């Protein structure tokens, strides 16, 4: 099973393609492509590429258990959640990058 | 057509001589027209040089140069029989004004005219043939009498002329001297004003390039000055400039958009890609791959066809240092924009070997690289990428016009900081 | 410090305007990402895991209070209130938005800074000894030459598309604090028979997946020919460096594969052609640039002596700071102070906007308005009067950067790792934090003495693990993180590349493994004066290996 992910152009933030063809922040909302849906997946990739607003596009393998999408690679889990290391002194957990007002992209 | 030509006895095919002529191209300042002509008259071809003039809109400039250097130089005027009367008047005006004492009119063979153009309308149906009987044929016996010719051709005039040097060697071992090769339209006009030269009577009426009456029309503002010649016909040159066995004639048959950016415009590219089928003996206007040149060096050196050299990453330009004078153009290939070897090659060519002819960049070129390439010595670019083409045409290349390093051949006033920055 | 003249200012503004136009074209869709990517990289703008990252050059690591304040301002206004100082003496911001980049660059230009050539296959920011112009052991201040190199290399038309990135480091002292033997070109001040000062030129050093120690290609190049000589090296590299494989494209591979003698021959042949040409550097020009780096107006100081032993008793933290964070100065009455950006549990090299502002204050008040960034991800006040040390210390305590741990086990170099970096295979910051916490006890740190741990989250070795006395390299194994440990690396003039000691460890076992290595060292050292690296050189890897993996 696979999802499509990338970074939104203006904010650089991590985004996922959802079922409605919109690029959203939430991994949970990502459309999961089955192994039979490679044609749809590639069409969505091509359409996104043509739009030019989502960059660094990747196909990521995920598992889906009880409705929870989990990327197989640690790198992708970190991309979804934000950095794991606490910040100097302030002791805060880093939040992921959020999209700006101009960051909402559909295919 | 005319009588069978006498077999031409070629002058001695002296390789050194031919290479020497081409090497002259680095010798003169681009705008030093008098210097070029004086050198041609006194050192290259004393007593063996003539000029054909159309007595057109720009002819006064070249004739003024001739009058300064040698008023007795033979000047031939092609009396095609199709000229404007204003042109014929102008011949007399200039002769008097400049003190030219050796002007001859050449007429077409009456037999040819009777046979090929009995109604006088050949220009309409077959302008090439019309030019042929009225210009090329009558000129031929004259041409053979001289070792070289002075022409008024300029790079800017038509797009095929982007590579025109001061001195050329024709395929029959004659020398063409082009003192005005680097003059622009503005330079010509300024020269006319500076020297108070009489205008062609039609110039003021919008004729910028004047030939025979039927084939000349008014040129619009901003149009190519020669656009008025053979308007509407797929023809740009009249044949008498087709020196190198006619090799220069072919570009206009290509219907494609010109991709060669040079001297501020996209021009038709006289060069063609080297193919397996090409032979060293006959290749002309080809960029010969460096290894091919090395393998056939002698064969390439004995011909006088205009040749270019193709340098790809990994080639060592050092290997052809001694032969660079043979090439009117060096094409440096960028198979990927990220492969920067060509920048070093260009600097070696222009700075170390003082190669002054065309250095063109071909291949994968980003618009942001062109300013850097220019500083390294590139003066021509083959560009197909549409946004880059637009940026070039609109003169908005992304560029930092200030720089720190002494790179290039026209840098650094003596005594200043060595890595002195210069404003473009 | 160097001050921009009108030309420098116009140059940077020109470049800023150029990039602003490119960003505009990208945002409008006129330019594709494919076209934009090389352009943004040449302006220091990367796309990382979560966001863009902007890398700003701090030329040869020198900056003023005003420039530091600008970093604070950028952190506050355009980022998340902090910045990350790097091993290339640069600063990185991890969260800027593309549309803000032109404004950031414009603000930077107003304080004579930029992000030009902090990425891409070009000559990168030239780095230098962070004690330049201050260190007691210095032969000559390397910054004037570094500045001349900065100018020479800025948007060099021939060398903007090299086979790979190119890093130059300069030191004017015999004790190498700039890791010059691990740079593509390293320059070290040298004196010839006539007593003139010129440069030893080292070439072909580097870290990454194939670490190499630089080789001496010329033992003396005078100032006047230095640019010509370097241009000769660059041309040989540009023409002959490998381009078929990006992992073999650095000059170190060329030197390694062709052999130093071959490369030297090519460089000398090229040098023979360009020597004495337009790149000849007149002494007046060197003098003109050197004048910018004139020492500050030092005052004759009363013979202040600090009794460190006494201070250590009444205020142990201050005593430790005096012990470890002070470097001797060539001017009597003055010292250089290292501001450790390695508080226990912190992210190495990170500083908040407030901390940067406070440090700028301290520099202005006590440090002749000068600061340095070190390649070990700390900051330096190069010129501090001994009589002001206590005041400086107290001001630093207020910033949270008063740890007296410079050169000790918690003073780690650490790359951003998989928490931020698109290239990383494993995290490194959390590991550094764990190790730091494990060895937090100051007495323990002092007992261990000088020990450099360097952590990289991937083979590209931004965390310099190859030259750590203990190096840690994060790799990916079966979807998880695994850490290899190397021993014996050294970035100084006694340059050495560390050796992998055995199978890797999972993250939670790394701090324990480090402790085992440290305990082994302490048990086996001849005295407290024998440092970890000295003991390792004497003992070899065997006892350490045995301690870690048993006698199998």
CATH architecture of the largest domain in chain C: 2-Layer Sandwich
Please state the average pLDDT score of chain B.
78
Shape of chain C: globular
Number of H- or I-type helical stretches of chain C:
18
Overall number of strands of chain B: 16
How would you characterize the largest beta sheet of chain B?
Answer: 8 strands, mixed
Q: What can be said about this structure in brief?
A:
The complex is a heterotrimer of chains A (about 110), B (about 425) and C (about 550). Chain B is of the alpha/beta class and about 425 residues long.
Key features of this structure:
heterotrimer; A: 107 residues; alpha+beta; 6-stranded antiparallel beta sheet; globular; B: 424 residues; Rossmann fold; 6-stranded mixed beta sheet; disordered N terminus
Explain this structure to me?
The complex is a heterotrimer of chains A (107), B (424) and C (552). Chain A has 107 residues and is α+β, with helices and mostly antiparallel strands. Chain A has one domain. Chain A has two helices and six strands; from the N terminus they run βββαββαβ. Chain A has a six-stranded antiparallel β-sheet. In chain A, a hairpin with a 2-residue loop joins β4 and β5 (68-71). The radius of gyration of chain A is 14 Å and the shape is globular. Chain B is an alpha/beta fold and 424 residues long. Chain B has two domains: 15-251, Rossmann fold, CATH 3.40.50.620; 272-423, Aldolase class I (TIM Barrel), CATH 3.20.20. Chain B has helices at residues 15-23, 33-44, 59-69, 85-98, 110-116, 122-125, 127-143, 185-194, 290-295, 297-302, 341-352, 370-375, 386-393, and strands at 49-53, 75-78, 103-106, 148-150, 167-169, 175-177, 260-262, 265-267, 272-273, 286-289, 307-311, 327-334, 358-363, 380-382, 402-403, 422-423. In chain B, strands 8-7-14-13-12-11-10-9 form an eight-stranded mixed β-sheet. A six-stranded mixed β-sheet of chain B has the order 3-2-1-4-6-5, sandwiched between helices. The longest helix of chain B is centred in the first third of the chain and has 17 residues, at 127-143. Chain C is of the alpha+beta class and 552 residues long. Chain C folds into four domains: 6-110, Sulfite Reductase Hemoprotein, domain 2, CATH 3.90.480.20; 142-292, 2-Layer Sandwich (Sulfite Reductase Hemoprotein, domain 1), CATH 3.30.413; 308-399, Sulfite Reductase Hemoprotein, domain 2; 413-549, Sulfite Reductase Hemoprotein, domain 1, CATH 3.30.413.10. Chain C has helices spanning 6-27, 33-42, 65-78, 101-110, 143-153, 223-240, 251-258, 260-274, 283-292, 308-314, 316-324, 353-366, 389-399, 429-438, 442-448, 510-524, 532-539, 542-549, and strands at residues 45-47, 52-56, 62-64, 82-85, 91-93, 127-128, 168-171, 185-191, 197-203, 215-222, 326-328, 334-339, 350-352, 370-373, 379-385, 413-414, 453-456, 470-477, 480-487, 499-500. In chain C, the strands form four sheets. In chain C, strands 1-2-5-4-13 form a five-stranded antiparallel β-sheet. Chain C has a five-stranded antiparallel β-sheet with strand order 3-14-15-12-11. Chain C has a five-stranded mixed β-sheet with strand order 6-7-8-9-10. In chain C, α5 crosses α9. The radius of gyration of chain C is 23 Å and the shape is globular. The N and C termini of chain C lie far apart (58 Å). Chain B binds chain C through residues 313, 337-341, 343-345, 347, 352, 366, 368-369, 371-373, 375-376, 387, 398-407, 411-412, 417-419, 421, and chain C through 7, 10-11, 14-15, 18, 21-22, 30-31, 35, 38-39, 121, 148, 151-152, 154-163, 227, 235, 238-239, 243, 273, 278-282, 285.
């Amino acid at each position: 099973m696979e999802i499509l992910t990338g970074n939104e152009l203006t904010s650089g933030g991590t985004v996922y393609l959802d079922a409605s063809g919109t690029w959203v922040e939430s991994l949970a909302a990502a459309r999961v492509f089955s192994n039979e849906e490679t044609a749809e997946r590639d069409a969505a990739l091509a359409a996104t590429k043509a739009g030019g607003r989502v960059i660094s596009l990747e196909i990521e393998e995920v598992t889906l258990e009880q409705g929870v999408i989990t990327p197989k690679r640690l790198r992708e889990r970190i991309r979804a959640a934000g950095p794991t290391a606490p910040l100097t002194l302030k002791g805060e957990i880093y939040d992921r990058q959020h999209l700006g007002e101009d960051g909402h992209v559909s295919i | 057509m005319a009588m069978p030509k006498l077999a031409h006895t070629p002058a001695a095919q002296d390789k050194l001589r031919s290479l020497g002529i081409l090497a002259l191209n680095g010798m003169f300042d681009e705008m030093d027209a008098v210097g070029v002509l004086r050198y041609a008259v006194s050192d290259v071809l004393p007593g063996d040089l003539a000029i054909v003039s159309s007595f057109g809109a720009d002819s006064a400039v070249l004739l003024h140069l001739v009058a300064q250097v040698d008023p007795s130089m033979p000047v031939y005027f092609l009396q095609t029989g199709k000229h404007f009367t204003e042109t014929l008047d102008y011949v007399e005006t200039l002769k008097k004004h400049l003190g030219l004492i050796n002007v001859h009119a050449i007429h077409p063979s009456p037999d040819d005219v009777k046979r090929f153009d009995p109604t006088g309308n050949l220009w309409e149906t077959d302008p090439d043939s019309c030019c042929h009987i009225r210009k090329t044929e009558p000129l031929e016996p004259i041409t053979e009498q001289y070792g070289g010719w002075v022409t008024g051709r300029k790079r800017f005039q038509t797009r095929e002329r982007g590579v025109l040097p001061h001195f050329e060697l024709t395929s029959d071992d004659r020398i063409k001297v082009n003192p005005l090769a680097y003059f622009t339209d503005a330079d010509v006009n300024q020269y006319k004003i500076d020297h108070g030269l009489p205008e062609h009577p039609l110039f003021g009426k919008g004729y910028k390039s004047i030939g025979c009456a039927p084939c000349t029309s008014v040129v619009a503002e901003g149009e190519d000055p020669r656009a008025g010649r053979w308007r509407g016909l797929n023809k740009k040159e009249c044949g008498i400039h087709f020196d190198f066995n006619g090799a220069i004639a072919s570009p206009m048959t290509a219907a494609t958009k010109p991709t060669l950016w040079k001297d501020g415009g996209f021009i038709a590219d006289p060069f063609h890609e080297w193919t397996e089928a090409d032979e060293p003996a006959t290749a002309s206007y080809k960029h010969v791959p460096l290894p091919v040149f090395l393998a056939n060096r002698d064969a390439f050196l004995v011909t006088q066809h205009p040749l270019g050299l193709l340098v790809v990453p990994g080639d060592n330009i050092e290997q052809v240092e001694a032969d660079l004078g043979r090439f009117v153009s060096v094409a440096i290939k960028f198979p990927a924009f990220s492969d920067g070897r060509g920048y070093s090659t260009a600097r070696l060519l222009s700075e170390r070997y003082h190669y002054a002819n065309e250095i063109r960049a071909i291949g994968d070129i980003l618009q942001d690289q062109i300013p850097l390439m220019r500083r390294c010595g590139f003066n021509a670019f083959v560009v197909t990428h549409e946004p880059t083409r637009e940026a070039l045409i609109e003169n908005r290349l992304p560029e930092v016009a200030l720089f720190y390093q002494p790179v290039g051949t026209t840098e650094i006033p003596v005594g200043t900081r060595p890595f002195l920055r210069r404003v473009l | 410090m160097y001050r921009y003249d009108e030309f420098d200012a116009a140059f940077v503004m020109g470049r800023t305007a150029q990039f602003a136009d490119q960003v505009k074209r990208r945002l409008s869709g006129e330019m594709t990402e494919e076209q934009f990517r090389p352009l943004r990289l040449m302006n220091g703008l990367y796309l990382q895991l979560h966001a863009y990252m902007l890398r700003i050059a701090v030329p040869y690591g020198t900056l003023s209070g005003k420039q530091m304040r600008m970093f604070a301002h950028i952190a506050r206004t355009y980022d998340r209130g902090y910045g990350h100082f790097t091993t290339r003496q640069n600063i990185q911001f991890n969260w800027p938005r593309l549309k803000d980049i032109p404004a950031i660059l414009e603000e930077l230009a107003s304080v004579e800074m930029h992000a030009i050539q902090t990425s891409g296959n070009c000559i990168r920011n030239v780095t230098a000894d962070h004690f330049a112009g201050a260190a007691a052991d210095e032969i000559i201040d390397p910054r004037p030459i570094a500045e001349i190199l900065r100018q020479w290399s800025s948007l060099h038309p021939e060398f903007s598309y090299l086979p790979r990135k190119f890093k130059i480091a300069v030191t004017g002292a015999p004790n190498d604090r700039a890791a010059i033997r691990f740079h593509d070109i390293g320059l070290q001040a040298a004196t010839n028979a006539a007593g003139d000062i010129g440069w030893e030129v080292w070439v072909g050093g580097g870290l990454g997946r194939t670490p190499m120690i630089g080789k001496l290609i010329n033992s003396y190049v005078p100032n006047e020919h230095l640019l010509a000589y370097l241009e000769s090296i660059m041309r040989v590299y540009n023409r002959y460096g490998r381009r078929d494989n990006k992992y073999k494209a650095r000059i170190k591979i060329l030197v390694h594969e062709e052999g130093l003698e071959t490369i030297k021959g090519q460089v000398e042949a090229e040098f023979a052609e360009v020597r004495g040409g337009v790149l000849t550097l007149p002494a007046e020009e060197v003098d003109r640039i050197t004048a910018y780096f004139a020492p500050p107006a030092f005052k004759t100081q009363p013979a202040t002596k600090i009794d460190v032993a006494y201070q250590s008793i009444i205020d142990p933290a201050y005593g430790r700071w005096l012990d470890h964070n002070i470097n001797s100065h060539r001017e009597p009455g003055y010292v250089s102070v290292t501001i450790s950006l390695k508080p226990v549990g912190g992210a190495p090299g990170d500083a908040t906007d407030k901390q940067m502002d406070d440090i700028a204050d301290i520099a202005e008040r006590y440090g002749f308005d000068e600061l340095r960034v070190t390649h070990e991800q700390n900051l330096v006040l190069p010129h501090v009067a001994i009589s002001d040390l206590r005041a400086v210390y107290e001001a630093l305590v207020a910033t949270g950067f008063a740890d007296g741990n410079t050169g000790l086990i918690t003073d780690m170099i650490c790359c951003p790792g998989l928490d931020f970096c698109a290239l990383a295979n494993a995290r490194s910051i959390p590991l550094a934090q764990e190790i730091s916490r494990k060895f937090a006890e100051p007495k323990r740190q002092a007992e261990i003495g000088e020990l450099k741990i360097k952590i990289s989250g991937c083979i590209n070795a931004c965390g310099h693990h190859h030259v750590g006395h203990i190096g840690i390299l994060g790799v990916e194994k079966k979807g998880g993180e695994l850490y290899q440990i190397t021993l014996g690396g050294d970035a100084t003039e006694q340059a050495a590349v560390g050796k992998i000691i055995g199978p890797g460890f999972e993250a939670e076992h790394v701090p324990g493994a480090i402790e085992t290595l440290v305990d082994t060292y302490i048990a086996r050292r001849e005295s407290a004066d024998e440092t970890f690296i000295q003991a390792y050189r004497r003992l070899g890897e065997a006892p350490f290996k045995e301690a870690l993996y048993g006698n199998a």
